[in-house]
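Q: I'm writing up a methods section and want to include an example of the input and output format. Could you take the sequence below and give the corresponding predicted structure tokens, formatted cleanly so I can copy it straight into the document?
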Amino acid sequence: MTKNYGSDPLLSYNSYLRVPELIGLQNCLSDPEHHDELLFITIHQAYELWFKLILHEIDAAIQLMNADRAIAAERALRRVVEIEKLLVNQIHILETMSPINFLGFRDELNPASGFQSMQFREIEFASGLKDPHIQNEFRKDQFAHERLRARAEAPTLADAFFDLLRRRGFDTPAIDESQGSEENQRGYGKRTRAVLELLTHFEDHYEEFQLAEALLEHDEFFRCGARIT
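A: Here is the clean output for your methods example:
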């Protein structure tokens, strides 16, 4: 249970951030403890904390787009992009560990893999990449499976974006994946033309253009992060 420190006269930096609990979460499995295992755990726990914040900002961006607040949604996505830039650079810290040193404790981690990051998959789903096979991979982990199921059923960033454009007069139909592929293709074509209109006549639709740019940057940097995660 999380303690409420709000009215605690002894509130401190350590108690507010729960530093004692936080620095007690890096439990190495190697015995004797391998020097670089702490680096490996710390980097990946830091990734998960940033993933949590990315999901927080994506959820905010979707809600803001639903409320027709394009500029506020863009700001939330710009924060996501800055976090993703940081995550791409963070990999260089991990590269200070040589492959031979990683092999010194890798066997202790089997069969765990970075591909099992629940929050990474949640970001994929919220960004529009909903793969039912991925969801099935987590079927034995009830907590993760339920979170991914909820993300699979929820609207994506793209859904919220094209809904906003439609309310603002663009021909961006909702896409029903249960319908025939020909109808879907026509819908995707209309969406593409709407985005091209934004990108080529941004001076006429500046708010929508800025939001589209932020979404494209998120796609770019998240894809880059996916290649190195």
